[in-house]
Amino acid sequence: MSRTSGPEPRHALRFHSHAYFDYAAPERAEQARAFRELIRRTFATNAHLEVRAFHAAPAGPHPLGSFEVLFTREAFADYVSWLMFARPQEIDILVHPLTGSQVLDHTARALWLGVPLPLDRRMLEEEDARRLASGAMCHNAVCIPAFQART
Length: 151
Hints:
- The chain has a five-stranded antiparallel β-sheet with strand order 2-3-1-4-5, with helices on one face.
- It is built from four helices and five strands; from the N terminus they run βαββαβαβα.
- By secondary structure, it is an alpha+beta fold.
- It is 33% helix and 21% strand.
- The model is unreliable at 140-151 (pLDDT under 50).
- The N and C termini lie far apart (40 Å).
- It has one domain (11-143): 2-Layer Sandwich (Alpha-Beta Plaits), CATH 3.30.70.1240.
- It has helices spanning 26-42, 73-86, 102-106, 121-134, and strands at residues 14-21, 49-55, 65-72, 92-97, 111-113.
- It is globular and about 40 Å long.
């Protein structure tokens, strides 16, 4: 099996999870908010995990409502294994590294908990093209915006 080109796995220092929910159903949005809060409480003392934005409707390449969690490789095993057991059945989760390639990170390098959803690949490709044109596209952790671990 060949590995996707790009950084060595040891260079993937940061990751995202995107938790998706049916935004048209108010009870699903409330369930997602409660699950987001549970993540925040459960990992409150973990300086390597940060609960981020809640999107009540589709945003960017994401086809449903979602919320995002940023975490480092130090939190990966604890957080992702926790998600495997704590994730409500109605919430599907995409986990991916942050290496500088939106397309590869959201597809070939990603893993899913629940049902994989179709992302807007065109938007991911456009973002990669913008980064490449600006000279910001890279294949190492240096190009990724800094994550400030809480102390």
